[in-house]
Design a protein that fits this description.
single chain, 427 residues, mainly alpha, Growth Hormone, Chain: A, Major Facilitator Superfamily protein, transmembrane transporter activity, Sugar_transport-like, transmembrane
Amino acid sequence: MRNDGLFALGRADGRARLYILGSECLKAIYTAFTTGVFLTGFLLNAGMDQVQIGLVTSLPLAAGVLYPLSPLLLERFRKRKAVLGTARLFYHGLVILCVTLLPGWVPQSSLLWWMAAALLLGNGCNILVASGFPAWHIGFLPEEIRGRFFAISGIVNSVFTAAATFGASMLADAAKASGRQMYWMGVIRLAAFGMALAELVLLLLPKEPEYPKSSVKGIRLLTLPFGNRKFCLTMIPVFAWMMVSTMTLYSANTYLLKEVQASYVFISILQAMNIVTTAIVMPFWHRLLLRTSWLQAFQKVFLMFALYPFLHMLITKNTYLWLLPVTMLVYQAIFAGGTLYFNNMAYLFTPKEDRTAYLSWYLMLVSAGSLCGQGLSTLLLKLWPEDWVFRNIHIAPAQRILLVQCVLSLGFGVWFGRVLLRKLEKA
C-alpha cells in the first residue's frame, strides 16, 4: 500500500487528507477514553447496574431518528463551517464534559435520567449536522485512493487507540487500588474532552468546497434515497453490521469486569495487540477487496465475525488468562476488515449532488442498528437476569447474549451471500 502523494504537504488536498487523518486519530483516542470498558467502569462506579448501563448507553441512539432532518437544515447553507463547528462543540460539551460532572452534581436516584438527557441532547445536536463533515471531506478522498486511505487510517488509528487505552487503564487500575477510582476516571474523561476540542479544530481546517446544489427541495429531499434501489439494498448490511458488532459492546465489558474480574490493564494490554494485528491483517483485507468487491468482501466478514462471540462466550475466571487473548486477537483481525469495508458503504451508490441527503439516511441506519443491537442486549438482560445452571456449570446472562450475537452474525452472513448479493447484481 504505497502512500506517496496521499499526504503531500505541498498540496491543499494532501494537507486536507492529513487533517482528516489527524482528526480520526484524536477521535480514536477520546473514543477509547469515553466508551467501551472505560465508560462501563465509570458508570459502574457511579452506582449503576447492568440494565441501567444498557439503558443510558442505548437511549441516546434514539436521537438517530433526527438524521433525515439534517439535509433540510444543511441545504440552507452554502457555507457550513460555523454551523458544523458550533453543533460539534455542544455535542462534546454535553456528551463528554457534562456526563463526567453529573455524578457529583445530581442525586443517585435521578442520575440515570440526567445522564440519558445529556447524552440525548448532545447526540441530537451532533445528529442534526452529522452528514455535514462527511459530505465536506469525502471530496478529498476520490474513489481511486479511498481504499488506500481507509486502510492506512485503520492502522494508524489502532496505534493511537492502543496507546491511549493502555495509559488510561494503568491509571484506572492504580486509582482502583487507591480508592479514588471515580476521581481519576473523571480526569481521564476531561483529558478526552481536550482531545475532542483538538479534533474539532482539525475537522475545520480543510478548505470548504462549494456544495453542489440539489435539484430536489423540501420533503422530497428526505425521500430521495428511496428511489435508489442499490443504495437501499446496501444499507441492509450497514444496519446489520452495527446491530451485530455493537450488541455486546457494554454487556461483554461488564461481564469481564464483574464476573471474570479481569483488570483494566490486562484488558488494555490485549486491546493494544490491535496495533500489530491490524498492521498484519490489513494488507490481506485490502488484497481481498482488490480480488472481489466492497460488498463481496464485507459479506465474508459477517461469516468470520461469528467466531468472536462464540469464543468470548467460553471465557470464565478459569480460562480468561489464555482464552481472552485468543478471543481479542480473533476480534481485532476480523474487525479490521469489517471497519475497512464498512467505511465505504455510504459512498458506493451515492450521487455527488445529493450526498447530504443520502449520508443522513446512512447515519440514521448506523444509529438505528446500534440502538437495535444494544437495545436487544438490554432487553435480554432484563428478561433473563439470573444465571442458568446446568450440572454445576453457570451460564451468565452476558454469555447467552454472546451466543445470540454469534447466531445472528452467521445467519446474516449466509443470507447476505445467497440472497442480497444477487439482488444487488440485478438492481
